[in-house]
């Protein structure tokens, strides 16, 4: 979706034992330095991609 997450954040997120769709959205946006509340449409798209692939929790 065009995110360029720094490697350290990518590794940190990947190493989490469990993650809900909402937590994933927050983690990705935090890594990008973006407030998801300012980009609700994009946040919903990211959440939808996550839930389509993993359900609501990984």
Give your account of this protein's structure.
The protein has 58 residues and is mainly alpha-helical. It has a domain at 18-54. The protein is 60% helix and 0% strand. It is built from three helices and no strands. The protein has helices at residues 7-14, 21-32, 40-54. α2 (21-32) crosses α3. The protein is globular, with a radius of gyration of 11 Å.
In oligomeric terms, what are we looking at?
single chain
What is the alpha-carbon Rg in Å?
A: 11 Å
Low-confidence stretches: none
| Distance between the amino and carboxyl termini | 19 Å
The counted number of beta strands is 0
Instruction: Please provide the ordered H/E string of secondary-structure elements.
Output: HHH
Beta-strand share of residues: under 5%
Described by strand count, sense and barrel closure, the largest sheet is: none
Question: What form results from the Cα inertia axes?
Answer: globular
Determine the fraction of residues in helical runs and give it as a percent range.
55-70%
What's the total helix number? 3
Would you tell me the overall average pLDDT?
93
Structural class: mainly alpha
